[in-house]
Amino acid sequence: MPKCFRTKLIDLYAGEYAVVLNPADATELGVRQLDRVRVVTDHGAVTAIVETSQSIVKDDQIGILTKMKIDLDLKEGDEVKVLPTEPPLSIEFIKKKMDGRELTTEEITAIISDMAKYNLSDIEITAYVTAVYTKGLTMREMKDACLAMVKTGEVIEIDRKPIFDHHSIGGCPGNKVTLLVVPIAVAAGLTVPKTSSRAISSACGTADIMEAICPVTLSAQQIKSITEEIGGVIVWGGGLHLSPVDDMIIRIEYPLSIDPFSMVVASVMSKKKAVGAEYFVLDIPLGPETKVKTDDMALKYSRAFIDIGTELGIETACAISYGHQPIGRNIGPSLEAKEALEALEGKPSSSSLIEKSLGLAGMLLEMGNVARPGEGIKEARKILEDGRALAKFKQIVEAQGGKANMKSTDITLGEFSKEILAKGHGYVSIIHNKMITKVVRTAGAPKDKGAGMVLFKKLGDRVEKGDPLFKIYADHQGKLENAWKQAEALQPYITKGMILDTITDNTPRLDKVRRF
Amino acid sequence: MPKCFRTKLIDLYAGEYAVVLNPADATELGVRQLDRVRVVTDHGAVTAIVETSQSIVKDDQIGILTKMKIDLDLKEGDEVKVLPTEPPLSIEFIKKKMDGRELTTEEITAIISDMAKYNLSDIEITAYVTAVYTKGLTMREMKDACLAMVKTGEVIEIDRKPIFDHHSIGGCPGNKVTLLVVPIAVAAGLTVPKTSSRAISSACGTADIMEAICPVTLSAQQIKSITEEIGGVIVWGGGLHLSPVDDMIIRIEYPLSIDPFSMVVASVMSKKKAVGAEYFVLDIPLGPETKVKTDDMALKYSRAFIDIGTELGIETACAISYGHQPIGRNIGPSLEAKEALEALEGKPSSSSLIEKSLGLAGMLLEMGNVARPGEGIKEARKILEDGRALAKFKQIVEAQGGKANMKSTDITLGEFSKEILAKGHGYVSIIHNKMITKVVRTAGAPKDKGAGMVLFKKLGDRVEKGDPLFKIYADHQGKLENAWKQAEALQPYITKGMILDTITDNTPRLDKVRRF
After folding, report:
1. pLDDT 10s digits, A295-345
2. Cβ of residue A20 closer than 8 Å to a chain B Cβ
3. Domain count across chain A
4. Cα–Cα distance between B95 and B18 in angstroms, integer?
5. CA-based nearest distance B54→chain A, Å
6. Of B12, B252, B476, which is closest to A20 when you measure between CB atoms?
7. What is the pLDDT of residues B310-340, one digit of tens each?
8. B454, B335 in Cβ contact below 8 A?
């Protein structure tokens, strides 16, 4: 028995389709909070989740939240029919994954498709994300999730083929290589419409870094026209609905600061497919504190990306890179932007940044036949050193709406800063990536662009007592103090003497560790 | 740098403290959706989660959702100070549990305490619930969770000691025993302020059943005065804030239809403590489709309840009961209410219902020294058979606001019904509890009081082709059809011939199964 309501628009975002009923109407319909109703309008019907409110809606009024208002093109006071309906079957499949069982292709597809139709609530999506985090996905499930996600998104059709792309699965702080890789590849004649993400669990994503230089929130049309005109962009992909389901998953991952690997494959590949990528180079940082911790895992996941690439018609090559310590010396949006721009300008830079960027760019150049096999790095180095990469980068920045002729000295760092000094001498034997990330996030990154850290010492460097180890930057004094306190507690640096132990009594004490 | 806002009240329930900012204000504060702010008012300060909206709040206005409005006693247009703040540390502990690690007492306490302060969002609480579901809690963690939950709730002080209580951990459909156990125990002179729950994953909870007879949503003051006057009640515990954290957890469990065991111990015991229970009998149904599937598990969890009981000063005894098939013959709120009332009235009833109820009531009578050791059941039977239990039940119903002199014939069943007939002959060898529950829920339970199922055959009964196996009831024709179709597909009954196999060729085919 459907019941008729007049809409009342409520401009509040909810990840799902949600409606607000007053308790009497809810009882009459036989539904309670978090149950489902089917809402039938002149523009179609959707399933929505029920919230109740004593006063926001009157009798026979139904509150419609933003997302649903837009998608159903509803106006204030429109008449809609409402009837109770069952929760989607995909909730059963989410529970099946919670129980650790493998999902069939149909089941995975049903979950993704219900998410795309805004049929699952935050609670249900979180249960899915947490279940995948705790129980994992098999390769087959990942592939199915990826294919299902591609089908739900919008695509950007760029009329300049073939299209190249690059991505790093992250986990290694300071990884601003995209700001070098893209301009080198584009300067060599390749087409690279690079959509990147903001930080989920890291200190900053490529989009956060690029945003310290120029706007990154561009429309699909802008991305298309700039790429067709000058060969590439470096933009934020999150606002483009390339893979709306992935964006929903990322929204859930953000407050939890998680980024489960089995989600990453589908997340990355669905977005690459959406921009029409045909050639793709993936960077997999390998190290004790990155997402990929062992050679075996790196090989396994390379295989997953390559397999799914094949399935999607994307020729994929993976670079397993050194991830035991941050890339370069700067971490945080503005600091990384500055370091990348300095490297493009030919100023003295960190070899880890230069060599990693050239390695990845070289792979793209060879894939695109603009460098002979084995000569990609050489060619990339030439493009970097003769200034073509810098020129192309400036062109990209200006096209995206940034300042013309942007220089590294134009970038503003955090107003407040503090150095941390070594409390003893020795050699740097461990730099904890995760602790560095925590400290930088506490300092305000990725939201505060000026927040970050500069490393003065890297692995193997000699340290004397009182030497500056690193410097924390922040936009706010309070956050600097908090980050500094946290750095004191977390001790991201460990230094050891070259003599690891001295025998002065009968007890050997190997691994005598001195913390910064 | 705090920023001042004027409040705009938004009457919308959110499980957490939530505020709505317009995007410009959010950017100025350096926060984004799902980040935290500290809201400082004249009546105290709380941490709230940020939602953003273009139009619901103007510049310098902050939208305040219901829960927070009440707790901080805010009025429209009040001035509040807002500043960004860090997410609570307990999110780290939730992630630790997601990684399968044991939490310390301090960590569990921090999670429960942040929930009680409305500091965790639905996303974060769901991650906790899902992590506990997938990774479990140790006995120690359960005990800590329980003690922490007791500390966060309100208590009902009843001046009639000692206080007895009873609970079933469920999983066995048709378990309406509380409607017999409580009046028997109270008629024997014991004090039993029974707070019960609504269905989470089952077809109906005791509160749903009792509600088919009389109101169950009573205030703490009403529960206290009725119990003090006549010895007991059977009410819904959910609205009483006895364990608000448990209510939050149940809210998350409801759409997912889960009820993880490690949550059940803390959930049950925290609510028993809140009503001041000193003696407690727990029913643990054991069977392949109940929550407890093996003898070992039953013993392990009995130990957990008894240990935590000792810790809380509640003398606890556990009854491991037969849970291979539904208790009695009726499932669904009205049907179970009717069956229980018939049993109290002395009408012919199912022996499983009578014997189980007398067993549990007998344990309470012996604990309370109103029956000699070993004579509890005998005494309970006397109270049931001589009508004292019925009289006490009627007194309770009337005190709770129900009809005076309520009879089983006064209860209305679902208007629509349909019988399912056996498709072959044999003996009932399996009745799938879970499938029965699914069919009854599809028929509309627990929301539709009249929805349910009556079983004509139980385990071991002889079935001829065409015999009615069970009958489905519903309040709505559509739901009846859906439930009937589901019953056809799920086949909750399995019958076998007494001759399990016949050798007619060379292939023995043991376990030849005939489905209804």
Report:
1. 888 888 888 899 889 988 999 999 999 988 999 999 999 999 999 999 999
2. yes
3. 4
4. 22
5. 7
6. B12
7. 988 999 999 999 988 999 999 999 999 999 9
8. yes
